[in-house]
Design goal:
single chain, 332 residues, alpha+beta, Double-stranded beta-helix, 2 domains, 6-stranded mixed β-sheet, 8 helices, 26% helix
């Protein structure tokens, strides 16, 4: 008889869709997670992401318990988010507060942070009427599909995230860093390899240079790992970008990305990146009660525009230092 710790799960693969595991209705979610934790984690290691359907998750407390059973090491606090999240309990958060009519294109969660989650957990408590898919894309395949000369430049220089914190849009620095005192903010920035500058009006601007390509911590495979496209000005809806530039100026955007040497990234490059992501996107609409685990290095993820209420709870686990995974010394 196969014990729960050694059993394998029957994960289905269909073209254009993320790997899926169908669970018979009637299971107690926490008991199922306890019995299948190791097998599910093995499936994620094999496939990069697994969508579990039929588990029937119902409320934040149940989600927190399932997350606890799946990641005994515990969940990470949310730091350096570019938009606010609602905290629930035990490291469980709402998805980012982002306009429903604007998509969040492919990215690796907190790939601009010194410490980022190696594993993402998503639980759908309310599926939207239409849209709202959390798509995934294999970062190895995305890297292979990009022009060699572009990859080489990003590998040599890395990428740069510039942020401007204000009270009007995006996360404030108090929300992002979890501290309000200026000295504590400066201490956080120094400890996390973030350059900072206070403006005369009290606004904080930061710059952080990170590798764009890393090696997977387990397999050693090279992965395209960043948020170059998502946090770039050319991914913002044109009318929103024009408004932000008019109000804050070109150097005062809430966030923007550049090449590692500080040079702007052109609209054509951002369009190319998003096109490659789209060609590698796997998507399946959420159903209420779904659970999805995503290897945050191997797989990028996105959130499509949607209509109707949508409630997806997020957990982040298995912290990694991004510079431990650099592909070469020059990537820093």
């Amino acid at each position: 008889m196969t014990s729960p710790s050694t059993r394998t799960l029957d994960v289905e693969r269909h073209a254009g869709r993320p790997p899926m595991l169908n669970v018979e209705n009637g299971h107690d979610p926490a008991r199922w997670a306890e019995q299948n934790s190791e097998a599910l984690r093995m499936a994620v290691a094999e496939h990069g992401a697994v969508l579990v359907r039929g588990l029937g998750l119902r409320d934040p407390a149940e989600v927190a318990e399932v997350y606890r059973l799946l990641v005994p090491g515990g969940l990470m606090p949310d730091r350096e988010a570019f938009a606010a999240r609602q905290p629930y309990l035990d490291g469980v958060y709402s998805s980012l507060k982002w306009p429903a009519n604007q998509p969040m294109c492919m990215h690796h969660e907190l790939s601009y942070a010194l410490e980022f989650p190696g594993l993402m957990l998503f639980a759908c408590l309310q599926a939207p009427t239409t849209g709202g898919v959390t798509g995934v894309a294999d970062a190895r395949a995305v890297l292979d599909a990009l022009p060699a000369e572009l990859v080489q430049r990003f590998e040599n220089e890395g990428w740069l995230l510039a942020r401007s914190y204000n009270e009007d849009i995006g996360a404030t620095y108090e929300e992002a860093f979890g501290v309000a005192d200026r000295a504590a903010v400066e201490e956080y920035c120094r400890a996390h390899a973030i350059e900072f500058e206070w403006q005369p009006d009290g606004e904080l601007r930061t710059r952080q240079r990170r590798p764009a390509i890393v090696r997977h911590p387990v397999t050693g495979e090279r992965c395209w790992f960043n948020q170059v496209a998502f946090l770039n000005e050319w991914t913002i809806a044109p009318e929103v970008r024009e408004y932000l530039v008019d109000v804050y100026g070109p150097d005062g955007l809430p966030f923007n990305t550049r090449f590692g040497n500080g040079e702007p990234i052109g609209e054509d490059i951002v369009a190319l990146l998003n096109d490659v992501y789209e060609r590698h996107t796997l998507r399946t609409p959420w159903e209420t009660g779904d659970l999805m685990l995503v290897d945050n290095v191997r797989m990028a993820h996105s959130r499509e525009a949607y209509e109707g209420p949508r409630e997806v709870l997020v957990g982040m686990a298995e912290p990694r230092n991004v510079f431990d995974l650099v592909t070469k010394d020059g990537a820093r």
